[in-house]
Each structure stands twice: as C-alpha cells, then as structure tokens.
Amino acid sequence: MRTFEVVVPFLKKTWLKLTFGVLVLVIVDITQVFIPYIIKHTIDSLADGSFTQHDIVKWSVLIVLMSFFMVVLRFFWRMLIIGNSHYLEKFLREKFYSHLMRLSQNYFNFSKIGDLMAHATNDLNAVRMLFGLGIVAGADIFLMATAAFGFMIAIDMKLTLLAIIPLPLISFMIAFFGSKLHKRFAFVQKSYSDLSGMIQESISGIRIVKAFAQEKPEIKKMQFFSNEYVKQNIFMAKLSGLFHPALGVLVSISMIIVLVFGGQAVIKGEITIGGFIAFFSYLGMLIWPMWAIGWVVDMYQRGSASMKRLNAIWNTKPEIIDSEETDQNITMINGDVEFRNLSFKYNVDSENIFNEINVSIKCGQTLAVCGKTGTGKTTLIDLLCRVYNPEKGEIFVDGNDIHQIPLQLLRSSIVMVPQDIFLFSDTIANNIALGKPDATIDEIQQAAKSAAVFDDIMEFEKGFDTLVGERGVTVSGGQKQRIAIARAILTDPKVLILDDALSAVDTKTEREILNNFILKRKNKTNIIIAHRISALSNADKIIVIDKGKIVESGNHEELLGIGGIYKELFEKQKIEEKIQ
User: Fold this and answer.
1) How many domains, in total, are found in the chain?
2) Contact indicator for 539, 507 with CB cutoff of 8 Å
3) What CATH number does residue 511 fall under?
4) Where are the beta strands (DSSP E) in 420-516?
C-alpha cells in the first residue's frame, strides 16, 4: 500500500463521493442479478401453464423499468467514480509539478526532460485508470461474482461446483502473467520517456540541427527510438494478447461444462428449463468477473509500475531547503553582501573551484567580477543565490549567514540575468512583467527604456504585444538580453546581478544600458560579471579571479596601475576595438 501512499490524502478528502458511487454500483448490480430470476420464474410459469396475459405484461414492464433504472444509476456511478479519477489525476499532476518546482537545480542537471514529460502524461494516466475503471471493475467483480455465485448455488449446488472447476487455473494464470505485465509496462514507459526526450531535445535544438545539416541523422535517431517504443509495446501486446484469450478458453470450458451437465439435468427433470436458462445467465454474469480479473490485474500492474516511477521523484528531496537554523524573523534584506574565506568544490572528489575568496559589498555599491573563462565567476553567484550550498560561515547578507535567511526571501531579493537568456512563449510585455505580474504598461515601458530595448520593441508590428515565440526565437540575441535586463530592472530587487548579460549588444548600447542601470540602481546592490572591461570600468570595486583566487582588487584606475591581468585584458580589448 506504500506504493499508493501519496493518493491517500485525496481519497480521504473524497471518500464520501467514492462511497456513494460504490453504493450506487451495488444497487445496479443487485438489480441486474434479479432479472434472470424473473426470467426463470416467467419461463417456469409458462411451462406449467400458470402464466396469464396479465402476468406477461406485468413482468415485461418490470424488466423494462429495472433496465431503465440501471441506466440512470450507471450514469451516476460513472460520474462519481470515473469522474473522481480525473480529479485525482489533476491532484497528482499539480502535486508532481509543485514538487518539481521545489527540487534543486542540480536535480535537473541529471534528469531527462523526456522522462519528466512521460511521468506527467502516461504515468499519471495509468494511475487515473486504476482508480477509475479499476475501482469500478474491481467492485463489479466482487459484487457480481458473489451475487451470481449465490443464485447459482440456490438453483443447483452440484452444477455450480462443476462450473467453477477452471477457477484455480485462472488464479494461477493471473499470478503468472501479473508480474510479467508489471515488468513489461515499466519497459514501455522507459522507451516512451526516451522517445519523448529525444524529440523534445531535437526540436529545442532545431536551429543547430539545421545549421549542421543534421536532419537525416536526427530522423534516423528518432526512428531508432520509435522502433524501440513499438517493440516494447508489441511485447506488451503479446503478453496481453496471450493472457486474455487464455482466460477466455477457461471461461469457455465452464460454459461447456454447464451445457453438458446442465442439459442432462434438464432432460432428467432435475432442473427446470427456466432454472437452466437463469443458471446460464448467472454463469454469464460470473464469466464477466472471471474475465475482468485479468483486465483489473493489467490495470493494477500498469498503475503500480507508474506509481513507483512517480514515487521515485516524490521521494527525491530538495538538496537546498530551509533548515532548523533558518531564522523566520528575518523578513527583509538590505543588500550588504560579504564572501568570507569562501572555498568550494562541486563534490568530494573534485578540486576546489575557489580558495579563500574574501570580498564585501555595501548596499548601494556595484561590484564587478572579471577573469578568464572557466574561473568560476558564475559559480560564485550561484553560491550567493544558494543554487549550490556554500559551507556555513562563508557567505553573509546583511551580516546574517545565508543559511539563516529564509530561502524564499533570499531568492526573491536577488535577481540574476544570465548570459543564456530564457524567454517564455508569450508577449514581450508579459516576459518583462514576469517578476511583477501586476506592473502597469507604463512601468513595463519604462523598464524597456532603461534596458535600451524600447525602440526595438516599438518597431515590431504589435509592439509590446508581440509574441516572442518558443524560447524567444523571434527576437535577436541582443534583444533577448535587453528584454531580460528590463525584466530584472522592473522587479527592482535588493541585489541585481548581470552575469555576462551584455555580451550580445554593441559597446554603444552597452554604455547606454549601464548608464541607465547605475542611475536606476544607485541605492541598491549590483554585481556585474563581464568579459568586456568597458562594462566594468564604472564599478565601485572590481575583482579579478584566476585559478580560484582573487588575484587583483580595486577600482578601474587602481587595477590599471597594478599592471596585471586586468590591464592586460583592457589593452587587448582596446586593440580589438580599433581593429573592428
């Protein structure tokens, strides 16, 4: 039952609806089992001549009314049970998505999007089927089998015992095929995940695919995964195709037994014709549960396999969360940041990315960070945002260790604009207003002006209502960066970080953005990471990181006077600008 532990809260909440649905189902089944008994009574009365015209009309009308009654009640139990299963799927999907949102960034570094999409579609659908049709079929099996078996015993005990001879074989077959179906469905779901992931990755990287003329290799790759998915489904179909007909054979054996021995009993006068017909009708009712057991087992194996895959994600705990040390009394951040003897490595076996980084920034100051590619500049910022966890006592905000600051407060107070910009498939206005959904159009436009992208936006036919397309495909790299900067400026966080977010704009536009940026953010903390020295020159403090250490620190003039790495980069870029 632990497999379905996550479903328990929902079932506790909706138990009344489910109970009423099962109760209606019971009434339908009880009504249904009485119809053959009425037919038995009618046929036996006709045989002994005691049946009148009035009786024919009376019993016919009764059967019609009972059938109509069952139709109405079937509608209600379908709405109550199967309808409730759709709400269960909604509950699980929202829980699944909410859990994904809480997981640490590192989890997504090692998870395939195709796997997650398969969990959110096929796996949830399999669980819904189990708790919808699975409950209906399971209840129906028990009720119909019990009622039909009881009426069969009442008609003829000996014939009933003969009719159930195949039942032990059915139990053995269910146990044998059940485990195989469970394993096979897990393979089907994995192949579906692989196929979904491959297609998603290929479509996301369609520009690269076309740029390197890799359409045919990608099609071949898709065909391989598609064939694998078909192969796994064929294996599953073979098992199901063998399972259900085999059950049908055993069911047919029961019918043959009843025809042979029941027919002899009628000839000998041990059973009336009406009793024989009713017995055969009840056997038909018993056959449905016998056959449906296989269907329910199939659904259970699919549902439990899917639930185990989902549980593997739900059981994954976020690496970075609030702890006992978190001080919930901290409700505001001013923006003083200090790195104190910071050292960091990604795992135990790797080398240190940093060694004893020491730097502090006061609220209202701008810190610039530069260094060669791969020196850990972005990692430094990731540690400040707790994308990765630093050791305690190494990073402080407003004098508080960042482990003491509530995670939601920390991340909502620090906004980073990365070099690799992500825009949602929405309007430009909505992309800019992402961090402040209630922003007015005037505020959005003002932010766009500060990011020097307002004129570009107004050149589009629909202006700020222009759809940027999937991942912002309809705008240029420079426009994407400036839209992202506008988004950050509009949010107006306590600490704003530009992580090489001006790499795709020209130096003139860069200068305009930085002038607006410094003016707009003069009372807030700013951190700028850039390769261009021109983007750093106006910062209050500049640090140069090399081989995991701060090798130079000061303002622009001081660093040029030192004559180290910073000056070397500055002179190199001046020569490049002259050449251009």
Assistant:
1) 2
2) no
3) 3.40.50.300
4) 495-499
